[in-house]
Fold this protein.
Amino acid sequence: MNQTAAQWVEGNFRNPHFPDGSVSQKGGAFDFEKDGFAIAKGVVPEAQRLRLNEVLGDPEGAGARGLLAVPEVRALARCEAVMALVARHLGSDARPVRAIFFDKTQSSNWLVPWHQDLTIAVTGRVETPGFGPWSVKHGIPHVQPPSAWLERMLALRLHLDDCDGSNGALRLIPGSHRLGRLGPDQIALCRAACTEVVCEAAAGDVLLMRPLLLHASSKSVSGRRRRVLHIEYCSGSLPEGLAWHECA
Ligand SMILES: O=C(O)CCC(=O)C(=O)O
């Protein structure tokens, strides 16, 4: 690739908030359709949050998966306030299709490099036009659906602790979901030329994000715990033969 990062971004994408290319900015008001993410404040009441913390406990490692099987998580994933946020962007037939608990602590302090969320978890491998490549993660078959399919999905990240740049808040590149699927070279170019946002949130706030939005997270440097319940939603059903690994 012989384009400079600036040329590539100029041709494909213009950061709507920081056209001067300044380096990093926290918070701000974002528009879900244009930026690929938005924050809804105070969605999870304190009592429900404390109950979730109790139920989710202290998992080993970075967190836990398969959480739509947990009644408290399923109830939250389908409660009126949460479904209203989802329906606004996906329509009223959207439903939860995966729930993951991310727990960043002093003893399990991890980072995630820049990426897009490209895979879905299904019950079994069934060759389907447009779906692939396949992989297996945590013993579960995963597949990349077509981009048009990913546009029918969104993730809600329900914050169970206050988070900011010091305890590993999510880092995002606004608008990057509009670039489609990106290879490693394009991700590097985008990183070099675009401004990231550190997604600060208070406990109870919800971040809504598109799967194709470029995101990353750093290790906590403050030692403060950062718990997030990540729930994915999809509208419509999977093609015949494929089934969600979890669904509520
Ligand atoms: O929770 C985090 O810090 C990162 C999670 C993530 O990258 C993801 O859900 O794809």
Remarks:
- The pocket of 2-oxoglutaric acid is lined by residues 102, 112, 117, 168, 170, 215, 217, 228, 230 (CB under 6 Å).
- The chain has one domain: 5-234.
